[in-house]
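User: Predict the full complex structure for these chains.
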Amino acid sequence: MDGLRETAELLKVVAHPARLEILQKLETEILCVSDMEELLGVGQSNVSQHLSILRRSGLVDCYVEGKLRCYFLKDPRVIDILVLLKKKYDDPLPAPACCPTRPHAQTKKTAASL
Amino acid sequence: MDGLRETAELLKVVAHPARLEILQKLETEILCVSDMEELLGVGQSNVSQHLSILRRSGLVDCYVEGKLRCYFLKDPRVIDILVLLKKKYDDPLPAPACCPTRPHAQTKKTAASL
DNA sequence: TCACTATATTAATATATTACAAGATGTGAA
DNA sequence: TTCACATCTTGTAATATATTAATATAGTGA
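Assistant: Here is the predicted structure of the four-chain assembly.
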């Protein structure tokens, strides 16, 4: 985690349903803008803006093929994030085991550590 | 990934430097609000707001200890996200190997697959 | 060159987030 | 009770983000 700022910035870029969907599709396909327009059901300029954000942050890149711009994933973190988001979790983390006696900045103890 | 909406919502909650820092600290310690106030160097009401967002989304929870509220991590996804964000990546993903001939929705080919 | 298509950019507006200040609530101690 | 402390909630102004429409650019083929 470089800086908190930059990390948050990266997450913010991914934290949009349209951009998430774009990234998800790009995991398996190369797509041009009009593909995505159809896919997402939003206007062309909106797609283009989202792509511009994704490009600016280095998550995707594109090459030109005639009139089309073919977008593909560039940042390896995207793959890992998408995998993680698909993962299933059964239980919440174990709650701290005891009611602590010294309230400030105590070291965390979980059920497992007793 | 349940729905894109909810997933984006989760990411948005994490995508703030102050909240990231809180979550990071909670990985190893239980903290009360005034601890975090000091830690983050922002006002108490602001900390409280961030905690309220984290609580509402189920990422953290707290128990009451006298006058203090002791916060701890609840959602296991947080741990995985933090681990991932700390991971180092050397190279970008391989660019698509060839300039495709059929532009629309082609299956992605990478250098590795040639 | 001209018209057409694909995409990018800009501008205008609506909406959401953020930080800060002030007041409300709840708990423990005198 | 009353006070002091820890935290939460609400109001608000500043800023950021999203959406949509309009316009600009760039490649292609007639």
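Residues 32-34, 44-45, 47-49, 51-52, 66-69 of chain A lie near DNA strand C (CB under 10 Å from a C1').
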